[in-house]
Design goal:
The protein is built from 13 helices and 21 strands. The chain is α/β, with parallel strands linked by helices and 551 residues long. Strands 1, 2, 3, 4, 5, 6, 7, 8 and 9 form a nine-stranded mixed beta sheet that branches.
């Protein structure tokens, strides 16, 4: 792990470089590069696997995503770090494994069950930041529309705008942007509601995975899954159209991906490929060949360093991923890692490592069943159908695997020969070398990344929130304070709380635009400066204000 004391003192470039400064500020942007930085757009959706036309699915109706793939690069081996959204999203925004920063349970703010800790926000190590802070410090306008789910709240310093109306169009003229649009139409809940909606996709044309029973109910859910992907495809088209209308298509690197695999049983929440393998398309005009594909392994932990690499921002040393594009691109990774921990009200503890051919899974709670009841998951008609048929003894041998009352300690799959991961090779002598190799890789990864999976959640929360009370970030200090100054004054903002980020503004009112503080600010005219601070997982500080009279 990196030197925490060194990282906690990390400084940022001025967030107001590149046309974001108010006229009262005269900033010395010592590290501002005259090189034009690219715009970067993330279009994300929820709960889908690579079930798109451009990935060879003939049943998918995704003309707009197929076009995007023809214009860019399609990644065939992109994986999230968990089969569910909140841990995955905490990884995306920080470039850190959820198991390293305490965001691995789904969710930290879940319903209050007697056997769970009360709802909390995770407190990552002090050096952990949303990577958008580094972008803002380099002059980027960062917007997120609008899902977060980071597990540690939404730091005021992370985004210029994080709302349902956030858009690159709200930036200053000529300012580079990093914008995220999250489309939720493909969430699992949209498969099952409204219950009487008939699918447009023909259920009889679907090829079901072998672990599902072939019944009208299952086919209906799967058909509706295809329908909502089609709807999402049109939403992507609208977003890309806006980019073209603004004349930005040629200057913007576009990413499209899902937060994890399809929202159906034995996929979402699990770390089989059905739960962690996601589509990833990147369009980067003049750099990535149109219609190309990349078979390198890519992990969600790589997304933050990749965006920073594309933006020309140096990679902080604590990031656990590696860039797969841009000037700071690394050699292809040899393996990806994934984790399953508490899912809503049920604890489980599973880890996985996967290379280009083999997947190794370690079940740390083999005494627990696979298909434990999770209230939200039980709402899916397919889940209810599978339980009914299992109770009636009508599932075949493959379909019954999901209803075993215990798990093997180890699972090993040849992904190429067995893409559905139904033939466990862990006890096959012919595969012992692969088993031992991947077991060693997993154990090394757990050690090197400080995997918190063995720490009981209640104990972890107690370390983060002493006495069950959320800690609060100390009030920032503006130095010098209020006063009268000739011709101008340089002010500095500090916060006694280790690892706190500071936001400031000269705007008044209840909804100002908060800028990220990163270096001393030169005031050239009278103003009142407001500041507040946040250590991730802590409550925001009280606001502090100072008035400066410039003569």
């Amino acid at each position: 792990m990196p030197d925490k004391s060194k990282l906690s003192r990390r400084t940022f470039l001025a967030a107001t470089c590149g046309a974001t400064a108010y006229s009262i500020f005269n900033l010395n942007c010592r590290h501002h590069s005259p090189v034009k930085r690219p715009n970067i757009l993330w279009i994300t959706c929820e709960d889908i696997s690579p079930d798109l036309g451009c990935y060879g699915d003939s049943l998918a109706r995704t003309p707009n995503l197929d076009r995007l793939a023809r214009e860019g690069m399609r990644f065939t081996n992109a994986f999230t770090v968990a089969g569910v959204c909140a841990p995955s999203r905490s990884c995306l925004i920080t470039g850190m494994y959820p198991t390293s920063i305490g965001t691995h349970h789904m969710r930290t703010r879940t319903k209050d069950y007697p056997w769970l800790p009360p709802p909390y926000e995770a407190v990552p190590p002090a050096y952990v930041k949303c990577f958008t802070e580094y972008l803002r410090a380099a002059g980027y306008y960062c917007s997120n529309c609008d899902k977060t789910d980071y597990q540690f709240g939404v730091p005021v310093t992370a985004w210029d705008d994080c709302s349902k109306t956030a858009h690159w169009r709200n930036r200053s003229s000529g300012q580079p942007f990093f914008s995220v649009f999250n489309f939720t139409i493909t969430h699992e809940s949209k498969i099952r509601t409204p219950v009487d909606l008939q699918p447009e996709t023909d259920p009889e044309k679907i090829t079901l995975p072998p672990y599902y029973p072939d019944t009208p109910i299952v086919r209906n859910d799967y058909a509706r899954y295809y329908d909502i992907i089609h709807t999402m495809d049109s939403q992507v088209a609208d977003c890309l159209k806006q980019l073209e209308q603004d004349g930005l298509a040629d200057d913007t690197i576009v990413f499209f991906f899902s937060d994890h695999g399809r929202g159906l049983p034995r996929a979402k929440r699990w770390i089989y490929d059905s739960g962690i393998h996601v589509p990833l398309i990147v369009r980067w005009g003049g750099q990535l060949a149109p219609g190309s594909q990349c078979h390198d392994l890519v992990s969600f932990v790589d997304f933050a360093p990749t965006v920073l690499s594309l933006a020309g921002v140096p990679l902080p040393s604590h990031l656990q991923g590696q860039a797969f594009l841009g000037e700071q691109k690394s050699a292809p990774r040899t393996a990806i890692f994934a984790a399953r921990d508490r899912m809503d009200e049920r604890y489980d503890h599973i880890r996985a490592v996967r290379d280009q051919q083999f997947k190794y899974i370690r079940n740390f709670q083999p005494e627990t069943p696979y298909a434990r009841e999770i209230a939200y998951m039980e709402l899916m008609p397919t889940m209810r159908e599978m339980r009914r048929l299992n109770a009636e003894g009508k599932l075949d041998a493959i379909q019954k695997l999901f209803f075993r009352q215990t798990k093997p300690v180890e699972e090993l799959y040849d992904i190429i020969a067995d893409p559905h991961e139904i033939r466990n090779l862990a006890d096959d002598p012919a595969y012992q070398a692969q088993l031992e190799r991947l077991r060693g890789l997993l154990e090394t990864w757990q050690t090197e990344t400080g995997d918190l999976g063995n720490l009981p959640e209640a104990e972890m929360v107690q370390k983060m929130w002493r006495g069950g009370v959320q800690p609060k970030t100390a009030q920032p200090i503006i130095s010098p304070g209020s006063g009268r100054f000739e011709s101008g004054v340089t002010i500095e903002l500090t916060c006694p709380t280790e690892g706190a980020s500071i936001a400031y503004t000269a705007e008044q009112g209840t909804s100002p635009h908060w800028l990220l503080y990163s270096q001393p600010i030169r005031l050239t005219r009278s103003s009142t400066i407001r500041a507040k601070a946040i250590r991730y997982g802590y409550a925001h500080s009280e606001e502090y204000a100072a008035t400066f009279q410039i003569h």
